[in-house]
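Fig. S4 source data, part A: sequence.
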Amino acid sequence: MKNFKVLFLYPNGTLMNPPAISIGLFTAILKERGYDVNLFDTSLYPDGINEKQLDNAKEETLQARPTNYDDKGVKVLKSDMATDLVKKVHDYQPDLIAVSLLESTYPIALKMFEAIEQFKIPVLVGGVFAIHAPEIVIENKCVDMVCIGEGEETIVEICDRLSEGNNCYDVENIWIKKEKHIIKNKMKKTIDINNIPIPDYSLFDWERFMRPMGGKIYNTIPIETNRGCPYLCTFCNSSSSQILFKENTSTSFFRKKTVETILKELVSLKKQWNAEYVYFSSDTFLILTKKELDELVELYIRDINLPFWIQTRAETLTPYRVKKIKEMGCHRISLGLEHGNEEFRKKLLKKAFDDESIIKASHLLAEAGIPLTVNNIIGFPEENRELVFDTIRLNRKLIADTTNCVAFAPFRGTYLHKLCVDRGYIKPDQLGYGSMTSSIFLDLPTFPREQIEGLRRTFSMYARMPYECWPDIKRAEKFDKEGNKIFAELAKEFKERYFSVKADGFDLM
């Protein structure tokens, strides 16, 4: 068997997210099998799609505390991404190119596909977008195979076949081109995530571990405690994955790792990367049972003892659970409100908690001294300006350090994508890609694009500043000379009032 080489391509927005867990897993798995692996990660390039990197865009709209990557020596690359990619492929000469893809990063992937088309190297694409829209991904002339399920076992089988000179036409979990036809193999059952190796992040540049958290940048390691989510929110790919796998494989996409597995990974990664911070990637971290939480807290304090970030749902927070995560060292937490109108939230978004649940949760966190970020989405189908102010008014009842506000994106596979198509808000072949922080995806008859954009930029002001400021904030929604001037003045006042060293009683520095 020849020395078979795999080049991973990771299209990503500028400085977005810690190192990808999926790439870390595939790196570890293929290295164990003796394969040679390499990586081209776009995270340190200006992405050319969104005008600003995610964290800067959030800072400018007052959704994140100001940070400076220069403090850690992190710099965005000045060279041309496509040129560098061509050189990488030419020098490395891979036998397979594997791409992990989100719908939001598809425009970046298209530029990468265009750059590598000349090499005629087999290309395998996986990831959330590939799973939910394989018919779109396989259409690209550069793509040879699409993974329609989990990739841990599939990528090994493909490498084994290709390295031995065999074809992959009957490999389960993939769609594959054969001459002018597409062979659509069936989806495989989900794997036991307690039997996969510890992710190997050695292919990522050191800068990728630097993450801003509450105004400070930490050397951060990502950890997967569970995969998928048991909740069925209509705007989220996690719920659609749960439905897709259940219908096609009769297995659950939602699975939890044991506390033993989680701690084994944490201990290894902390030591290997000299970590300062832990980023738990779970959609709903506190899906843990009381026994699991108690065990994790005890072992985390003993063996890890690092600050960490989690996201969870309001209804998973109780006085006991808040006390335990505080003991464990929780540094920040994010809760998804999404929408402040209870009827709208329950009926359209299928988020069943009531307003009082998240109000109570925010007070529990404040009493414990854990800074809260509230996640909000505007621009939903059937929404209007008045409904957004229901969200703003509920945010005003919460004790939070920061408030996120992004524009709704109708991602493939979700219930709301289908609804948008059925009601004519988007075309069936339209893609909802782009950054929800800097792009607008719907132009609704009830909620024009310019209103969504203006409210997104001023949302944190409405949610935090006194009511007497509201007339000026409304004028700041306009992206004209006067509106921009008023926004800048209000932003200065906002930062002085809410982004001082201590805010809402939290010592965040």
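Fig. S4 source data, part B ends here. The chain has two domains: 5-184, 210-507.
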